Structures are given as C-alpha cells and as structure tokens.
Amino acid sequence: MALPFLLKAKTRLKTPILPLASSTIFSSFYCISSRCRRDAAMNLCLPSQPPPVAKKVPSTVSAHGRTLQDPYHWMRNTADPSFVEYVNQENAYAEAFMADTQHLQRTLFEEMRSRIPTKISTPPERWGPWLYYEYIPEGKAYPILCRKLDTKINGWMKTFLSSITGKFGREQHLLDWNEIAEQNGYVHVGSCRVSPDHNFLAYTLDTTGHEEFILQIKDLRNGSIVPRSHVDGVISLAWAQDSSTLFYTISDDNQRPYRVLCTKMGSDEIHNYPIFTESDSSYCVDITSTKDGKFITVNSNSRTSSEVYVIDATSPFHGMQRVRKRVSGVQYFLEHHSGMFYILTNAPLSENKIWSGGNYYLATCQVEHIQSSNWQNILPGEDVSFQDIDILHGHLVLFLNKKDIPMLCSINLPIKASVKDQFQLEDLDPWFFPLPSDLCSIVPGSNHDFMNPVYRVVLSSPVIPDMIVDYDMSKQTFSVLVQEEVGSTSSDHGSSSLAYKTCEYLDTQNNDVKNEENIELQGWKHFSDTYCCKREEVISYDGVRILLTILYSQKAWHGHESPGLLQGYGAYGEVLDKSWCSDRLSLLDRGWVLAFADVRGGSGSDASWHKSGNRLNKKNSVFDFLSCSNYLIDEGYVHKDRLTAIGVSAGGLLVGAAINMRPDLFRAAILMVPFLDICNTLLDPTLPLTVLDYEEFGNPQLKSHFEAILSYSPYDNIHCGGCYPAVLVTASFHDSRVGVWEAAKWVARLRARTCSSCSRSVILKTNMTGGHFGEGGSYNHCKETAYIYAFLMKTSGQLNEKQTRWRCGKHS
Per its UniProt record, what PANTHER family does this chain match (predicted)? Predict the structure, then answer.
C-alpha cells in the first residue's frame, strides 16, 4: 500500500471514498414482475416505495442557435431546501434498494479487511542524517510520518544531533493523520515538505473534505506549530536553502492556484511577500524545487502549455527569470545538475518548424544561458516515448514507454556533449532497471537524498502486490525491500488461499549477465498461477488498436458464462490505474472478469494518444470503450447479459456516454462522482475547473466544440422510453471538482425519460459531508468497495437466491 509522504492543477480524477449505508427494514421489499426484459431477466427485489420524483422547473440555455431544455437546472442551488430534501430521499431509496445486500456487504467488508496487513510500513529512507518512514498502526486507518537518526552516524555529528534532539536513535512522530482525523472527523494532507535543515515540516491540511487546504508549519525540534503560520487556500510548497524561507501557492475563488507568495520565518512576525500572479484563468501555478535544491521553479501550466520561472534558492529575494515565453501546445519541465538544466519538452526543434504536438525529447542548457532560445537536443524521443525524468547527484533517471511497455533506465552524469552532439539512448550506456515481465505500474518514491545513488520505486501490477524496490545505479543491482502481504480469506464462496510464485524479470535491453545472480536472489513474487492477466489488442471502429488488460481467476472463471466489470477513464492523458488491489479478489474469486480499457484520451505510448481522444476527438474514447465491451463478449470472456462498467469522475463521463449509445450492452454500471452534465458545466465559466477544461474537452462558446460536446453529453443524450441498465451513481455534497447536482440531474432526467421499470434499478447515493475524495481511511474504503461490489452482485444475479426470496417475503 502506497503511503502519502514517501510517494499537479486539479483534475476530475480521484476516486471518492463513501460511507456504508445504514441498515433498513427488509419487509419493505417485494419482487417485481414486469414485462421489461431487464427486470424480468434480473428478477430484482425492489423497494415497495417508488423512487423519488424530482420537481421540474422550466429553464433553458441557448447557444449557437440551439435552445436546450433543462428542467433540473434548479439543482445547481445546493442551498435550496428542496434539493437537500430530494438528495435525502434518494439516499433513503438507495438504502432500501440495497437492504437485501446487508449480509453480503458485511461478508465482503470482512474479506477485504482481513487482507489488510496488521501493520503497514515503508522501509526507512535515508535523507541526510535522518531515516524517514511511515507506518499505519494496527487498528488505525491512517499513517504516521516518522523519523529517527541514522545509528551509523559517528563522531561529532552524532554528538551534535543528539544534543539538539534528545536520545540518539529515538523515533520521532512528525505528523499523525489519525490524531487529526479524531479531532476533526476528516483528514486530507495535500503537500508535505521537510526543510533542508530538517528542522521544520510544512504541510497543507484539509479537515472538511471541501479541498480547502490550510498551511501549517511545525517546528520539529520541539513539536510545536509555528505561530501565525496559518494561511488559507494553500496548494503547493517549496523551501529555499536557508530553511526559513518558504514559497507557496494560493488558490482563487474557483480553487485555481494562481499566486505565489513567500514567507520568512525567524522573527516574531511572519511576513508574506507576493512573488508571482497568474492572470490567465486557463493556467494554474505550481511551485517546486529542483532535486539538488539549488533552484525554485515557478511553473504556470495549462492542460497543454507551460511557462517556467526560476529562482536562485540561495538568494530567494533576488528576483526570478523566465525560461521561455509560453507557446500554445508547448510544455517543458526543468531539473538541474552541476550548472546545467535538463529539460523535458515537446517544443519545436526549429523556430521555422510548425509545431504539431510532437513527442517529448531531452534537451540541455547551461544555467547562464537559460533564456536562450537554443536548447541543445541531446536525446530525441524517436524509438521510445519520454514520460518523465528525475535526477540524483551521479545519475539521470528516465521514465520511458516503448510500445505500451513502461521502462526505467539510468544514465551517468554529467553527460559530456559538445554543442552539436545529439545522441541515441544506447550511446549513453544506459542501465535499464530489471522489471517484472507483467508490470503495469511504476511509481517513484520520494528519493529526497540527492547524493544517494540508490533510486527507490514502487512496482505493481494486477497480479503483483505492491513492492518497494531499491535500484543501486552505481553497482547496477537492485533489492526488493518489502512486498505487500496478502492474507488468506474464508467466505461463503469458499476459502481463498494464495500462494506466491517468484516471477521472471523483463530484460528490456539485454543488460549485462553480471546481474543475473542478483536478479535470482531478489526475485519478486506474483499470483499468476492463481489469477490470469492478459494484454489484448482490440480493434476500434476506425482500425486503431486499443490495449485491453483482462484479469480473471484461473479456478473460478467460467468462460462465456462469467460476469465482467470493465473500467475506463480516457482523459487528461492520465494513466488508467491497473496496480495491485487486494479488494478485487472478492470479485475474482466469485468468477468475475475484470478488464481495463486504455482508451484514447488517456495515457499511451506517445502524446498523440491523448490528443486523439480529447476535444473534438472525444467520442473516440467512447467508441474505444464500446469496442472493448464487445470484445469481452465476442471472445467469450464474459456472458453477453452480464457485462458491467465502472467510471470515476471524468471516467463517469466515458461510461455515461457509452451506456447512452448502447444501453443494451451493459447489465449494470457504476458512476462515481461522475462528470455527466458536461455541456451545461462548460457553458458556465464561473464554476471551478471549467476554463481549465476547455483544453481537454473543448470550449462550447465555439460552435464546432459545442456541437461535439452536445453529441455525447451524458445528461443531454438520455433516450426517451428506452430500457437502461441498473446504475449506482455516487456523489459528494461538497465536491468542488464535480458538482453534486450533476449526478442528481442525470438520475432525475433518466427516471423521467426512460422505462419506468428499469429506472427503479437506478440509485443515487450521496455523501452529505464529504468532498470529491469522500471520507478517507482504509476501513472506509473497504466499506465503500463492499457496497459497490454488493450492488454489482445483486444486479448480476449473484445474491444468494434462497436468502433473497426470504427477504422479499417469498420464503419457500
């Protein structure tokens, strides 16, 4: 399990965490007998009371000669008592609908909880004289950030540090998420930065779930909060080298980080100095420091363009330099090493060349020439796609993608190149990190210690539990420090006893055989003998190949008779998360097929994959998802009447559009904090994220964009009188990313327009206190997932049949 400290502008991205519905009375049920083929096939037990009916208030919106009727526009006013009453009615209906799954929910929850290790911890990571680590105490839901002095330190350093910290080697608790949650009922730590001298911890804290973060600075020498350090609306943080100057960004009323300020500590008064303000509402500002701590970078980014300013971290009040003027569609990111900036960019290689949104490449520039337009292109992104870079004292780390296979390699620094040199990657003698052959996810660790030749990552896949691996780039060896343990479970469907197997590594570039002994000793473990994980290529409507990852139990899968769950996202160029999740075992062991569709609009082997699924091309994402759905059925992985789908946030837009186009294809769907009312939302620039999202989904003020958005908008394309699948829609009342009214409006319109029998299987569950991220905590996450899985099993006919009949009043 990844922990937050030792692991950008906001997106409609994160998975919410919602609480379990409370119990209800089973006697309010009856079994429906209907001519609707969906309900007749599912024979669902439905509440005796009908679902809520939302009031209609005439309202229209006009654009480009079109007038759209929106009778549920009134829901935008979340302070309206009528809206609160309606949402509460929907919650009550959802509770009644799920009442016959209470036993199943408890069973699922206990299975998931039993798989969580009693103590989750990260291996200590050395940073200067300290060892930093995190752990979740037994019985707790949140981590504690800790440190202790490295016991290997000797001499005067040991004496000095002992004198200022007390007992040498004693564990210090720097930040306890559990204490904050107990005091406030909710905790979300955003940014968390230790000062270069290790004396202060600056962090941003949300205790409401509304993503309204406050800055706090803790003096680690005495454990006290620095007086008057409280600042509202803070997003990102960066320390200067003097450890008393802190840079931070604050957000505007639309939660857009737009201004950089600086605070200077060390006196009775805390002074805040303005550094930079971004006036363009389509750009967000982020503040960070280069890995060596020599420079602070002020990064002003839109979805597709960037502009960077650098500040000398040793003289933080001596002004800043702009690297390059922003150009539409051009992005660049900086790191520093020994007087050279290393730049990852997609900028045109020539001023005379028309930019076409090409792949990223690696360039360099001397610090004194940073404002020069002539960067030196040293590594072109031709055979591989550059995803990211990182720098340590002696090594450059490259995150690469080649034919949808992630790779990592290191190159010795400095790179000695003349002005005209351009290299191929193999010219620089890279060491490719050995990786598991079926790897899907690589997440870098914090790697705070610039002087350390060891690079830490978290590796994971659908069949490989999370493992923390250290790669020694000097010795070209690696060590698996820890791998997540998965406990066996016993449930009504039988016991689940898992046996690890040591798996092969992926030798991406035929590394020297001198590492074979190390690879053998440090082999990672996986569950491929128990669970099958396949990567298939699906041909979409226009001949483009879509990567589909398919996961199922070798023992429980029943071929074409099996139920299936397809997940997609397809937005912002983001990677679809396919890392290990032990909760999935509760579906896999019951015969479910889980599939992940890497549709256009998400992350791919190069930048064109994102562009081919956004703005005017957004419907490609939907068609890709439908092609993957058909593939699962046509190839015999899933029964034709038992396919379900799930989408989170912007992924809810994808799934919502897909079930509008092919409602007959899906048995059920899960839409979690979904972005469903895209046309109305993007027509209102006063809403958070709207202007920022023009580059992702298009600007409806432009006629061509408006027509494209309207053609797939889930809220605007619900069929009249048609049959729809069962749908669980989740929302959070205080969600600042996706308004709670989007889910409520969609459910209300679907109930009003579609088959009255089918719409009784559509439920809306709203968290009345949380925001986009829900409640938080590992146990709450288990409860939420158990609720979702129970809905899927009920609507797919997997509830215990005898138990269901008894609870419906048909005891046999």
Answer: PROLYL ENDOPEPTIDASE, PROTEASE FAMILY S9A OLIGOPEPTIDASE
Instruction: List pLDDT tens digits, range 584-596.
Output: 999 999 999 999 9
Per the document, the length of the chain is 812
Residue 656, pLDDT above cutoff 80: yes
Q: Among 512, 716, 527, 543, which Cα is nearest to 61's? A: 716
Q: What integer pLDDT is reported at residue 155 of this predicted model?
A: 56
Alpha-carbon dihedral of residues 323, 325, 331, 335, nearest 10 degrees? 0
Distance, C-alpha 664 to centroid of its chain = 30
Q: How far is it, in rounded angstroms, from Cα 621 to Cα 570?
A: 6
Range in 265-269, 675-679, 695-699 the model is least confident about: 265-269
DSSP 48-70: SSPPP-------EEEETTEEEE-
- What three-state secondary structure class fits 564? strand
Q: Which two tokens stand for residue 249?
A: 């960004």
Quick one: DSSP state of residue 704? H
Band (pLDDT 50/70/90 cuts) for residue 619 is very high
Q: Are 193 and 235 in contact (CB under 8 A)?
A: no
Mean pLDDT along residues 622-642: 98
- Residue located via tokens 């981590």: 143
Cα(698)–Cα(679) distance, integer angstroms:
10
pLDDT on residue 269? 60
Q: What secondary structure, in 3-state letters, does 346-368 show?
A: CCCCCCCCCCCCCCCEEEEEEHH
pLDDT of residue 682: 97
pTM for the full predicted model? 0.89
Nearest alpha carbon to residue 673 among 625, 726, 621, 742: 742
- Amino acid at site 311: I
pLDDT at 167: 52
67 pLDDT more than 80? yes
Residue by residue, DSSP assigns 400-422 as EEETTEEEEEEEESS----TT--
Mean pLDDT in residue range 501-530: 55
Q: Would you say 564 and 638 are in contact if contact means Cβ atoms under 8 Å apart?
A: yes
**Edge-first strand listing for the sheet containing 340-345:** 332-337, 340-345, 361-366, 376-379
Q: Is the peptide bond before 414 cis (omega within 30 degrees of 0)?
A: yes
Q: Measured between alpha carbons, how far is 524 from 188 in angstroms, rounded to an integer?
A: 32
Q: HEC profile for 618-659? A: CHHHHHHHHHHHHHHHHCCCCCCCCEEEEEECHHHHHHHHHH
Exposure string of 651-680, with b = 16+ CB inside 10 Å and e = fewer, is: bbbbbbbbbbeebebbbbbbbbbbbbbbbb
Please give the Cα distance from 209 to 12 (Å, whole number): 15
Per-residue model confidence (pLDDT) at position 509: 47
Residue 290 has phi, psi (to 5 degrees) of -65, 160
**Strands of 683-781, DSSP E:** 726-732, 762-767
If you search the block for the tokens 């579609």, which residue do you land on? Answer: 754
Query: Of 471, 414, 483, 406, which Cα lies nearest the Cα of 445?
Result: 471
Rounded CA separation 657/599 (Å) = 14
The answer to whether 233 touches 251, Cβ cutoff 8 Å, is yes
For residue 384, the number of C-alpha atoms closer than 13 Å in the C-beta half-sphere is 20
Domains of the chain from N-terminus onward: 333-484 (2.130.10.120), 528-780 (3.40.50.1820)
The pLDDT of residue 460 is 93
**Beta bridge pairs of residue 307:** 300
Residue 737 to residue 770: CA distance in whole angstroms: 12
Between 279-283, 372-376, 497-501, 738-742, the lowest mean confidence (pLDDT) is in: 497-501
Residue 422: the pLDDT is: 76
Q: List Cα–Cα distances, 803 to 23, 534, 611, 800, in angstroms.
A: 17, 36, 50, 5
The residue type found at 162 is: S
For 484-494, the pLDDT digits (tens) are 888 765 444 54
The bridge status of strand 545-553 relative to strand 593-598 is antiparallel
